[in-house]
Design goal:
Two copies of one chain form a homodimer. Chain A is of the alpha+beta class and about 130 residues long. Chain A has three helices and six strands, in the order H-H-E-E-H-E-E-E-E. The first copy, chain A, starts with a helix and ends with a strand. At the A-B interface, strand 3, strand 4, strand 5 and strand 6 of A face strand 3, strand 4, strand 5 and strand 6 of B.
Chain lengths: ~130, ~130
Amino acid sequence: MTDVDRVHAANQLFYIAHEGRDIEAMTAIWEHSDRVVCVHPGWPILRGWDDVLQSWVSIFRGPGQSQFILTNESISTKGDIAWVTLDENLVDGNGATTIAATNLFVRDHEGEWKLVTHHGSPVINR
Amino acid sequence: MTDVDRVHAANQLFYIAHEGRDIEAMTAIWEHSDRVVCVHPGWPILRGWDDVLQSWVSIFRGPGQSQFILTNESISTKGDIAWVTLDENLVDGNGATTIAATNLFVRDHEGEWKLVTHHGSPVINR
């Protein structure tokens, strides 16, 4: 497996955790540090693992169920950093919407890629 | 100057170029490669320097004038990669709005920090 393969797999795990509303799997994919950042679509910046975790707990408890169709993925790596950009195509009762996402991963001491930044933003049809 | 100081300075240059609608300064701050990514607020993902440049040309030709008040800045670095998250507070005739932004920089062979990813998203007041 190349670095890109591993980052792709880590990125997939993030969305599997999200779709499954699995807080344990979501916890496993993130770095647990003060520097983690999460921007949910339309949300302000959340900083630090405590606040990021709380947001996922809240989202997973909320209504709705989302299924992602991931497209337009591009992965770049440099040293122990990797960044992924992709479209999250959300299918729910209201039809389909697209979220543009940037996910930044850092390779830890055990060689695992951990999420340090997730930024999602709604694409407004133009 | 530390790496963080230099990244902070590079990030400032990006916003100075934006405020000044200065396409030459904007060109200087970006890496010119296929891997660059830009997500303007509400826009789809733009990939590659040609499309990113074209978007700035289009934005700078458009109506309106924006003044940024930058707050909530946080900078992390690892090797030759740095990422900045911050709030872009936009003041214009319609009042103030906030854009959450993630900016990713790569240090080039000459030691200069070049922008490879800019992702901005509107914060919807909650």
